[in-house]
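To: structure desk
From: M.T.
Subject: fold request, one chain
Message: Could you run this one when you get a chance? Sequence is below, nothing fancy, just the single chain.
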Amino acid sequence: MDAKVTQTSSAILDIVFDYALNKFNDSVERLSLGRPNFLAVIDRFVLAGTDVKMCLPAFPFKSANKVEKVFGILPDKAEELALERLNSMCARIKDVYPPGAKITIISDGITYNDLLNISDRETWAYGESLRSMAQEKGFSNIELARLKDLVKFRIPLPEKMEEITYVANATNFRHYLLNQFGKDDIDIDHEIATNPDTQMTYLGYRRFLESDLRYIFGHGRSNHSYKRGVRYLAKQMLIRGYAFAGAVKAAFPDHLRLSIHQSTGEHKVSMSLLNTKTGYTTPWHCTVAQMLNGDWISGTMSDFMKNKALEIVHENGRPSHFKETAKAIFESSASDHSPKIEATAIDINGQTTNFIAKTDVAVEKLLRIESRDACGYTFHTSHIMSR
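Reply: Done. Structure tokens follow.
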């Protein structure tokens, strides 16, 4: 192998690893296990002088838990941040390898949605809105696959997919998927017990299903009965997941395989779609909030709603994300005997917010903000107030 090719492939993989799932103590070690396999895939693109092609099964639909976790059924700022992150990764690759890189997102929503009480129409709406978002935001390094890219339909699908066509063929897709790529003799309990990747995916499914389905299947059941049902659904997802993985491998055999699931790291790169220090890394399971210093955090809608320092930001007429407000974060509960500072926060639209804060608290907070116009605010302090 040419040394230049090896060096370039290694540089590309290092960039991909910068965006990998890193919330576990052994994350680095896991990535190193798959490095030889991943480099072999990238080498082929570099040798040919073509863009590095990657594929990522992800972005199924918004969580079924609309009470606690998400705003609604459509993508919001969380998805935008995730797409921007993937697009930026490809842009960085172009800096070290001019042909660049492309990521094909393969939504797996239609594979599982009926198990989670998500309608085919809702799944369609999410996917189409995601396509529009990627196009409107100029994320040119991202492509989104269609149903016909994965399975062969007996009756060819129309070139232009529409909602009615999609819904009419959703059940057919699931049938064709299992018929073409499923395994009738699969022993899923054995797979969970003996395959570390399957076990980690299974545990991840159980974890999110317990919170996602609480307000759908949790009523009128004992906790034991509910968790037993969740375990059953998780195994059904795995069975379909095996078929879906087979379809992805057949349709994209030469692509670098990315994943949103924790894995051993040998066969696919586990990715972190949200660059937040908080727990959620998949945008369809959470909402996001922007703090005064510009950082983003992820969490459940209900938790953010309880935080008086956050307010909901609307985009295109619907909730998009949360934003830390200047007034709430700076006002102090100090006693009346404490000296205070009067200040004004001005947002990008010229609207002003006046607030009063304990002097040392205000100064400390202001110094902590790296950019004085973080989150669209500029700050002006006026005078110290006596008691």
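Reply (cont.): Residues 223-251 form the longest helix (29 residues). Let me know if you need anything else for the meeting.
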